[in-house]
Amino acid sequence: MNKVLELTKIFLKTSFSSMNAKMGVSTKFRGKFVLYGLLFVYFAGLIIFLSYNLLEGLIAINQEAIFIAMVLFMIFGFAIFQSIFSSINILYFTKDTEYILPLPLKPYQIILARTIVMLIAEYALIFLVGLIPLTTYGILTGVGIAFYIKMILAVILIPILPVLLINIIVMIIMSFAKLTKNRNRFQLIASLLVLVIIIALSVSMNGIKGDVSNEEMAQMIVQANGMLEMVKGYFPTVDFLINALTTNLVNVAIFEFLKTILITIVAFAVYMLIAQKIYFKGLVGNLFGGGYRKSNKEIKQKEFSNSKLYKSYIGKEFKCLYRNPVFLMQCLLPAILIPIVIVAITYTSLNSKETMGELTQMLGQMQVNTFTVACIILGIIQFFTMFIYISITAISRDGENAVFIKYIPVSLYKQYMYKIAPNIIMNVITTLISLGLAKYILNLPIITLILLLIVSTIMGILQSILMIIIDLKRPKLNWDSEYAVAKQNFNLIFPMILSMINIIILVGMVILLKDINIYVGLLILGLLFTIITIVVNKYMKKNQYELAQKII
Amino acid sequence: MIKVENLTKKFVRNKSKKEKEEFYADKDITFEAKDGEIIGILGPNGAGKTTLLRMIAGILEPTEGKISFDDMNYQNNEIEIKQKIAYLSGNTKLYDTLTTYELLRMCCDIYGVSKEESEKRIKEIAKVLVMEQFLYNKIANLSTGQTQKVNIARCLIHNPKYYILDEATTGLDIISSQIILNFIKEERNKGKTILYSTHYMEEAENICNKVIMINKGEIIKSGTPEEIKKDTNTTNLRDAFFTMLGGVLDEE
User: Please, what is the average pLDDT of chain A?
Assistant: First the structure.
């Protein structure tokens, strides 16, 4: 068991190596702690707000227990979604596999350690989306201490089964299907599948209107409860845990928990048995490539026909992004994915005649071509673009190869600019999608849309420059899995912080220049962000060598 | 000619959880590599070879000392120097999502090789290094030997004047190593200046005009292989190396 714990510690350390010993200075730790704290407070506040509104409606019709079922199913769903990606990466595509295999470890020890790492990764998110709404429920309904103990137990138990289930499915596929031995193709298909599911879910939710009262919302949830009742049978542990959390009888709760624990233990035992038989079969096949080269088609020469340095360099950046599924999914796709989901939801919602009529009537009564509306649109774009992680990982993505930039005859500043170009391009794409939506709903004049595009692009350039500076100052060059750069990377918090600061600036501008003409207002905004961008750009140019000091 | 004068690199490392200490990765290194010479840099792991070559390649800034390439230095002619050097370190998979061909084309663009010329050079190098079979395969899928060939091809693509090669034959089989060693010799015969660090003493003895032995960041011996063997009263560089290391250990 000691070996399992040691191995788990190593896996966790390599996964979260951004918090390594190098950064062990207390002030930095405090800074991180404060930043994480702020973000936690922000999202927790959002979840509490939503839960509170929902629960108010449910309490009014005495149906608050449905809320528990909803939250538990949500945790179950989250666990499944997250496992699809983390399973394939943690089990098969970490670079340490070839070092781990020759070690004197028993197969079950490796599998167990990997599974524990996956579960820990799951809990980080699940505690946020699970514990907070359930605590809100507890406070609003005035339940006793026993509920909170039951709640923690339930949140710990729920993700185990989905993780095991997904792991087994992945292992079976990896053992038998040749296609999945091609990492890129497998992850691309998985990514697209998730994309389709997200859009389908968004579209299917079109019946939910934005301005429903709590009572109406509660009614809708009661209807949805019928569906949950149907599904329950397929997920016995969730059903038992719902019963455990909603009952007031201690013995019933204990019995439900015992059933859940028993099923989980049996499932774990079965999982370990199957995994020991099939995990290494797929893993060794994957290590040695198995059919990998056959699937690797020749790339025609004409694909790389230009000889301009900037095109070549930016082309290389894009290729490295879209040919790597993790970077594609984490850095590139969000720019398109998030606005598309929003567009899909809005489009399907507005397509109902009733809603469209209401909206047309509402918009007819108000003036939309105002500075306030323009700032709201810019704020929404800021929200969308904070998930583009291209610039913030521009140096770290290259890993140990980052040193290449230091011995080629191209100035470092130029290379930084080439590296952030994809971020700026994706930023423009996100902006265009968002403005298209704004045009559809608000029917804004073209001149306003063009000005918004310009201001948003300047903000995007500023974001890109600032983010590469941060990545240069805090690069993460020694990593085993791309996830360490594109997901488990502390630096990813900075685009979020910058977007929040930008949103605060926009709010400040609205307060200061409330009744200003929209064009003058946008011009002032554009000028403000241009000045900041020039200053930051000058800083980067002047300190191009100092900034690259950590790349060795 | 590459001229290195009193080159020193100081780093700070953690002595304990709270304490830090300074140490010299390289101290007071001085040597010259003339045109048409291969200078072998030899030393055990941690001796300071890689740091030295990284400083010469412009990756690390020296704490003290000077590096000049003919009449150029990094302070005034950084881009010109980088245009003329080829740096190769260990066994790295540079941009492994690209194909070999794409990587070489990108390097041609970086070094300003024209489109027509780069097509010609890629074909030539692919033939010399026997790379035609995997020219259009992604680098991630190549074997260690094939990857190292790609790295070497990347270095050769812009016809550099100075080569800085850090363990260029590591991980290669005898045939691949020989191809590369022959190529290095040919480049020397064309008047190129080559700095070559290696763990393989026989290799150094065969191809190097001069050898610099480094231990703990300091030069412990330099000269032609013949001079070193004579001075240490040994018959090969391996024994000479151990004799020199033994001497240093004795002194401590």
Answer: 79
CB contact burial B179-214 (16+ within 10 A = b; e otherwise): bbbebbeebbeeebbbbbbbebbebbbebbebbbbb
Q: What is the DSSP string of chain B?
A: -EEEEEEEEEEEEESSSS-EEEEEEEEEEEEEE-TT-EEEEE--TTSSHHHHHHHHTTSS--SEEEEEETTEEHHHHHHHHHHHEEEEETT--TTTTSBHHHHHHHHHHHTT--HHHHHHHHHHHHHHTT-GGGTTSBGGGS-HHHHHHHHHHHHHTT--SEEEEESTTTT--HHHHHHHHHHHHHHHHTT-EEEEE-S-HHHHHHH-SEEEEEETTEEEEEE-HHHHHHHHT-SSHHHHHHHHHHHHHHH-
Query: Who's near B236: CB < 8 A, 6+ residues apart?
Result: B201, B202, B205, B229
Residue B68, phi then psi, degrees to nearest 5: -135, 145
What ipTM was assigned to the predicted interfaces of this complex?
0.72
| pTM for the structure as a whole | 0.65
Identify the pLDDT of residue A16.
Answer: 57
- DSSP secondary structure, A435-500, as one string: HHHHHHHH---HHHHHHHHHHHHHHHHHHHHHHHHHHHHS-----SSTHHHHTS-GGGHHHHHHHH
By C-alpha distance, the chain A residue nearest B80 is A409
Q: How many domains does chain B have?
A: 1
Handedness of CA B172, B175, B176, B180 (dihedral sign): positive
Nearest to A401 among B92, B102, B136 (CB): B92
Domain containing B204 equals 2-251
* DSSP characters over A157-215: HTTHHHHHHHHHHHHHHHHH-GGGGSHHHHHHHHHHHHHHHHHHHHHHTTT--TT--HH
- Per-residue pLDDT band for A225 (boundaries 50, 70, 90) equals low
Min Cα distance B114 → chain A (Å) is 7
Nearest to A540 by CA among A474, A468, A492: A468
| Per-residue pLDDT band at A174 (split at 50, 70, 90) | confident
Under the banding of pLDDT at 50, 70 and 90, the label for residue A184 is low
Query: Is the model's pLDDT at A396 over the cut of 90?
Result: yes
Mutate to test the interface with A, among B97, B122, B135 (most CBs of A within 10 A): B97
Residue A98: half-sphere exposure toward Cβ, Cα within 13 Å: 7
DSSP code string of B140-174: GGS-HHHHHHHHHHHHHTT--SEEEEESTTTT--H
Distance from CA of A20 to the nearest CA of B (A): 13
- Give the type of residue at A296: N
Name the residue with higher pLDDT: A181 or A457.
A457
| pLDDT-based confidence at residue B72 (cuts at 50, 70, 90) | very high
d(CA A436, CA A340): 11
Tokens of A130: 């699970």
Choice among A5-9, A188-192, A489-493 with the minimum mean pLDDT: A188-192
User: How sure is the predictor about A387, in pLDDT bands with cuts at 50, 70 and 90?
Assistant: confident
- How close is the nearest chain A Cα to the Cα of B206, in Å? 28
Once rounded to an integer, what is the mean pLDDT over residues A182-207? 62
CATH number at residue B93: 3.40.50.300
Q: Report pLDDT for A336.
A: 77
Q: What is the mean pLDDT of residues A241-256?
A: 88
Chain A interface, Cβ < 8 Å to B: 21, 289, 292-293, 296, 298-299, 301, 303-309, 311-313, 315-316, 319-320, 323-324, 398, 400-401, 403-404, 406-411, 545, 552
